[in-house]
């Protein structure tokens, strides 16, 4: 019975889709054309470039978490929803922050192991304590 319930849970999780494990590849923001104002070399970590773009009908500057672009190079960036002010943090439109295709199989594997552990616990509880036989 416990094994059947575990298999049912795994089956339903598989068909629930990526939203079950909070995996979302949708872009949250507005895609705009930007121009690199101050490029950054790709030496070391944490390189940030300055870009300018038009957002909300006015010219805006922002910081792009990236490197290797040339000065004056044009690229598409995503401006987050609700962004305001002079220093807006943007990311390249062809990237997705925090997405990994390995999360779904890993989440399903953890779900399988937890169903197995739950089934084993039910088995041990229903079996009862084992009394050692003395001869």
Describe this structure in words.
- With 135 residues, the chain is of the alpha+beta class.
- The chain is 30% helix and 29% strand.
- It is built from 2 helices and 5 strands.
- α1 runs antiparallel to α2.
- The mean pLDDT is 79.
Measured between the Cα atoms of the first and last residue, the distance is 36 Å
Strand content: 25-35%
Structural class: alpha+beta
As residue ranges, the low-confidence spans are: none
Main sheet strand line-up: 1-2-3-5-4
Biggest sheet descriptor: 5 strands, mixed, barrel
- Number of helical runs? 2
Tell me the radius of gyration: 26 Å
Helix content: 25-40%
Which word captures the global form?
elongated
- Tally of DSSP β-strands: 5
Q: Which whole number gives the mean pLDDT?
A: 79
How would you spell out the order of helices and strands? HEEEEEH
What would the keywords be for this entry?
single chain; 135 residues
Quick overview of this protein structure:
With 135 residues, the protein is α+β, with helices and mostly antiparallel strands.
List the SSEs and their pairings.
Elements: H1 2-16, E1 29-38, E2 48-55, E3 58-65, E4 74-80, E5 87-92, H2 103-127
């Amino acid at each position: 019975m416990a094994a059947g319930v575990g298999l049912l849970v795994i089956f339903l999780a598989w068909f629930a889709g990526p939203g079950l494990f909070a995996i979302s590849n949708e872009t949250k923001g507005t895609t705009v054309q930007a121009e690199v104002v101050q490029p950054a070399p790709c030496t070391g970590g944490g390189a940030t470039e300055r870009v300018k773009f038009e957002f909300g009908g006015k010219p805006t500057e922002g910081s792009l978490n990236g490197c290797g672009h040339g000065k004056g190079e044009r690229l598409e960036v995503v401006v987050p929803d609700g962004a305001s002010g002079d220093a807006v943090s943007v990311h390249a439109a062809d990237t997705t922050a925090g997405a990994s295709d390995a999360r779904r199989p890993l989440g399903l594997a953890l779900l399988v192991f937890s169903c197995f552990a739950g089934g084993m616990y039910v088995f041990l509880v229903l079996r009862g304590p084992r009394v050692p036989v003395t001869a």
